[in-house]
Amino acid sequence: MFKKYLPNITVLLALALSSVITWAAPVPLNNPLGLAVDPAGNLYVANFFGNAINIYNSAYTPVSAITAGIAGPQAVAVDQFDNTYVANINGGNITKYDADGQSKAVLPFAITPRSIAVDGIGNLYVAASSGNVDIYDTTQLTMGAFSSIPAYQDGDIITAVAVSGPLVYTAEGYPGRPDFHPNISVVAYNILQTLENVGIDIIATKYFQISYNPRLLHSNNQKYSSITDYYGYPMGVTGDQAGNSWTADVTNNQIWTTLIPARPKVLINLAYRPGGIALDSLRKRLFVSDPDHNSIHVYNPMTGKERRLIF
Questions:
Q1: Beta carbons of 14 and 34 less than 8 angstroms apart
Q2: Least enclosed by CB within 10 Å: which of 62, 79, 129, 253?
Q3: 173-210: per-residue pLDDT in tens?
Q4: CATH classification of 2-310, choosing from 3.40.50.1820, 3.40.50.300, 2.120.10.30, 2.40.10.340?
């Protein structure tokens, strides 16, 4: 697979002669936003002003990029078959690319989604302009959403979505009126339960709910008292298969974490605005994009200690 390794002379010659493979050379980071990690540990970066999806291998080496059809990418997702999904703000669409970098499907949007994620059973989750997360079949992107997940709190807008194993994470806030719902809520759903009743009662199969609202902290239906007021706006969310979550708060420039069954806490105070967040749980890496300095920070997801800086 060309994108996983640095190309040798044979590969370079094949790329020069082929009109099918659409991988390009890495593009310098320019306002990096959404992030995704595949099972092999490769990092995908929505390089907004670079109009590219930059791809780094597990050793942090830039190996290639997707540029064809990319126009202001805000979010990126990748599935276990190496299909890549890109939300283009300037293009007004979500485009699906196969493992060879070829565009396979385009889903148009009047307002480009803020965040996207994909699970292991063929579902694409889209944080839509409606404030909900709409769900699409990854093989039939143009056929329309077959179900949706509403915001947990009335009036909130889901701004970020992520998937880990059977869990779908959503993060919501109310960016228009910070005095209305000045908290960030993170909700996790078990898709193995939820998808049995798709289109009927998706919210009823809620796995557990976590809220950073100081008046309501839930985890696995057990209430915790608050020790920290938390007001912010979620720019990104990620989580693992155990229900532990990490949220990028762009209002306060912080990374919050909830490690079950502990209370939510600030894990990292950032010196920049977080543009996106992604977890590589196997290798214990937490990636946070830094659009202010055109870089990607790599942290220990448990301690918050910085491990690496990628330019």
A1: no
A2: 129
A3: 765 554 444 567 777 777 665 443 333 233 333 333 33
A4: 2.120.10.30
